[in-house]
Give the backbone structure.
Amino acid sequence: MTAIETHDLTKYYGDLCAVDHLSLSVDNEIFALLGPNGSGKTTTVLMLTTLLRPTEGTATVCGYDCATEGDMVRKKLSYVPQDMAVDIRLTGRENVVFFAKLYGVADPRAQADEALAIMELADRADDLVKTYSGGMRRRLELAQALVHEPAVLFLDEPTLGLDVAARKKIWEHIRKLRSRGMTVFVTTHYMDEADRFCDRVAIISRGSIMAIGKPKTLKAQLMKDVITATISGEFIPFELGSIRFLGRKEDDVSFTAENGREALPLIAEALVARGMKVHSLSLHEPTLDDVFLNVVGSSDEPRSFNDQQFRVMLRRRK
Amino acid sequence: MKGIWHYMERDLVKWARGRVAVITLLVMPAAWLIFVGLALPVRFTGNYLDFITPGILVMTMLASSLQGGSLLMFDKILGFLNKFLALPSPRENILFGKILFITIRGVIQATVILLIAILIGATILSPLQYGMIYVILILFGILFSGLATTLALYIDDHDSYAAVNTLISMPLFFMSSALMPYSVMPSWMRSIAMVNPLSFAIDAIRSVGLGEVPLMQMGLLFVTGGLVLIVCVQVFRNMTV
């Protein structure tokens, strides 16, 4: 049975379309929903975790309908929101045992100990969470989430606000859970992390999926090299023989070409000839950022849909 | 049912560990009891302390209950509520756990106030009478913690919550029979005090002190409490899908 399936899943907040006819099938993998703030990632997760009712379309988790069989869906999943909500006045163990009891697991203490051990928190389990670092708090949330051995794990921006080492550790743990047979559904706006650690990604912009597939396959859709130029001056997109324009991110414009070394001088000349000043040029292999630029066009945050407004709406949740 | 207990346990442990909050909620009622109860020169009764103690007990429950709503508000703002809503435990348990905790906390605080009252000279009653007083306080606590949690579902920031809290608690207290009997009230105040749920509880505790069984008032508290719970659950269900 497929872990997560959606058909034309849609959510409107008033007139604003947050998620637009999303159809997905996720099973037995680490799947990442990638996109900038306000692109509809969290709304999608809220619908899949039965916290928000879709305006249209259906979603199932392990074959149970998210809208009508909420109780069964919640038995199958664990959800870690981006807020980092752990009780700082309780110890790590108390936090996990509390969740184990609410999940109704057979032996809450033993299960909690096991989950804490998996997340490498056993030696600090009896300290108040007040004394934990950000990375440890995140791992504690993961321990809470896996204490009932869910079939599907939803993680909303699991590495937000953590330092590089803590991020790496979180991802290693997520991989470990995956190898235990869990389906992991992550949202993130860190393209590089998704590239390194996820089996499959979907790039979402303004509520619609723009590209979906293995990071490697997505990157292969571009040509072998990507050239990025930092410029100033008015930029008008252009193509140059087989060199294709990818997109613009602030002052950086990117192109893709089969042979980057040969394309570099051509691009520099073309830019200067069109009246721009070129500050620097770089050549690299395609990344998911480039894929994103290619399918979305620009990686500016959508102005009409700011994060703050979105959060206010989430809280009202009608 | 078990879920209610676990949610309650979480709040109880957190509360007991935050030592400052345990004391601060008690300062106000204790001050009233000592400074007003012992010092106010009144003519309508010989023992004002005995008269005012029921009012202060109910005031303690009221303050604790109304303040308790902010617990749910914080759970909502900080993201705990969303985590709890995604759990398989029935969602209403979150609500009942809160109401249970707030009521238990109020009863603990009221007990401290009762002990202080006895210490400074209130008349000692029989165990049966104390038992009835506790039943009344619990019914009252459920009524107002239900009300406070319902409010908390609507309110999203701490300042507004504190403002609403004051807006409710002050007039409710002064417009009740807590400080004076109906006979010495101006008539406009009497008509308000008669329908104030605070007065139901205060009058009930006073009747217990006189050796009566205040079935009428207890019934009223029971019915209003039940109605508030029904509304509360309904609002909660509407808000959470």
About this structure: Residues 301-305 of chain A have pLDDT under 50 and may be disordered. The interface with chain B takes residues 46, 49-53, 70-71, 74-75, 77-85, 87, 89-90, 94, 98-99, 101-104, 315, 317 of chain A (CB under 8 Å). The CA atoms of residues 151 and 161 of chain A lie 27 Å apart. The first strand of chain A starts at residue 4 and ends at 13.
